[in-house]
Amino acid sequence: MQKAKPRIGVIGTGAIGGFYGLMLARAGHDVHFLLRSEYPAVREHGITVDSRVHGELNLKPVQAYADVADMPPCDWLLVGAKSTTNETLAPIIAKAAAPGARVILLQNGLNNEQQLRQLLPPELHLIGGLCYVCLYRKAPGVVVHQDNGMIDLAYHSGPADEQQQQEMIALGAEMFRDAGLKAREKGNLDGARWQKLVWNAPFNGVSVILNAGTQTLLDNAASRQLVGELMQEVVDAAEACGHSMPELLAEKLLVGTQRMPDYLPSMYHDWLHKRPMELDSLYGEALKLAAVAGCSMPKTEALLQMLQFIEAGYSASAD
């Protein structure tokens, strides 16, 4: 008898959840999507990914739910919601999870898994998912995918020994490869998150402060230098915290970004739509860890202070 494919749940069906969930569903996986405001649009029109890599993709009908109580228990959960909502996410994850479910946290920044772990049932497996992808949500249920799509997976915590952890990560990676995506199995989650932060922290914040995409920032000598210096601060902080970074990482990332399509990072869209920005996970945690390690990050701290000022301004006007 053929073994049934595991049931996959997507919590937070925005750009990240919509893209990866659609790719998995199109590959024949049993995918269920939890939505809030976008539920009526997705029920009527499905999920569309306008991709420069894969062409225009549409998933319809969608196994979509407005209430987690209506979802079937899922063996894998992809959490694509922002880290700013993690406290309210925990009970939703617990309700959507089948016994012993694997929860993949598809978020940017540092220590998100550590903070969420305290709020989850101990029998759930928590896995870090690092998405290397250029995309944004254009409209309810509509995602524009510009480049890449690779994902790294690393086990964080749960009731699994070392061999079981490796097997679980291998299964997860194979699931994404089956959907036509590159996936890598990582052993050091903290190191991988620091390495991703080398790109994320500078480009996310500077795109907001200077109201510019990646190509505009790199075409100008002053902003390119600023981004490079911010990258180097993150590299230095990571190494001070005990995580070795690849040689000349900052320069390699600048060169690689120059080859990408012009891209506005996720924090830019949060600012544009006056949503909370992921300031703690992208900057606050790094500054705290660096300070403990005796490493200063003055440019990163200044960037955070400017972003805090901007967010406070539009948060106050919304009250």
UniProtKB/TrEMBL annotation:
One of its GO terms (biological process) is pantothenate biosynthetic process. Pfam families: ApbA (PF02558), ApbA_C (PF08546). Keywords: NADP, Oxidoreductase, Pantothenate biosynthesis. It is an enzyme of class 1 (oxidoreductase). Residues 188-311 form the Ketopantoate reductase C-terminal domain. SUPFAM superfamilies: 6-phosphogluconate dehydrogenase C-terminal domain-like, NAD(P)-binding Rossmann-fold domains. Belongs to the ketopantoate reductase family. Catalyzes the NADPH-dependent reduction of ketopantoate into pantoic acid. This is 2-dehydropantoate 2-reductase. It comes from Halopseudomonas litoralis. The lineage of its organism: Bacteria, Pseudomonadati, Pseudomonadota, Gammaproteobacteria, Pseudomonadales.
